[in-house]
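We were asked to recover a plausible sequence for a given structure. The inputs and outputs are reproduced exactly as logged, with field labels preserved.

PROBLEM: sequence recovery
POSITIONS: 170
GIVEN STRUCTURE:
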């Protein structure tokens, strides 16, 4: 878990889950019980590790403080930043949760310390291993060449760069 109580004034928790979702609408409704915090679910296959998730979340939070956010919702802004491109529809297509057997990256902002434990009732089995980047899948999802990944040093670093470069596009 990453916590930041300094400049951002919030805490960020990141966890992975293996889930079998039969009704995404019901999952979203169940998340409303956590009304004092923000919870965003994303397809873990599109995440390049915990560091990528935290980096994108910090960028998303900062865009609201600078009034440079793309989305009106922090969760959607995190998704946009995580995907490294400005199109909300594309970000949701890439990182959105679907029905079936899925791996889920959960980002919780300003939630109580036990939120991830409580989410097992909704999302099944906690498994942070699903956050480990699968370089081949990520290269395919984000149309990344081997040269691009090698130049950046890793897929994680490259996707974090794409997140940071969104600032220049505003």
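RECOVERED SEQUENCE:
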């Amino acid at each position: 878990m990453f916590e930041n109580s300094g400049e951002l004034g919030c805490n960020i928790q990141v966890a992975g889950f293996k889930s079998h979702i039969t009704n995404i609408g019901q999952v979203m409704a169940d998340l409303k019980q956590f009304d004092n915090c923000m919870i965003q679910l994303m397809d873990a296959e599109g995440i390049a590790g915990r560091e990528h998730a935290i980096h994108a979340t910090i960028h998303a939070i900062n865009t609201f403080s600078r009034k440079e956010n793309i989305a009106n919702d922090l969760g959607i802004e995190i998704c946009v930043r995580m995907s490294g491109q400005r199109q909300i529809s594309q970000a949701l297509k890439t990182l959105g949760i679907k029905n079936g057997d899925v791996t889920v990256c959960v980002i919780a902002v300003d939630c109580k310390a036990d939120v991830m434990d409580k989410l097992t009732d909704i999302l099944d089995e906690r498994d942070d291993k699903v956050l480990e980047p699968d370089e081949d899948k990520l290269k395919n999802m984000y149309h990344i060449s081997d040269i691009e990944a090698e130049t950046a040093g890793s897929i994680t670093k490259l996707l974090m760069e794409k997140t940071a470069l969104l600032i220049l596009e505003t």
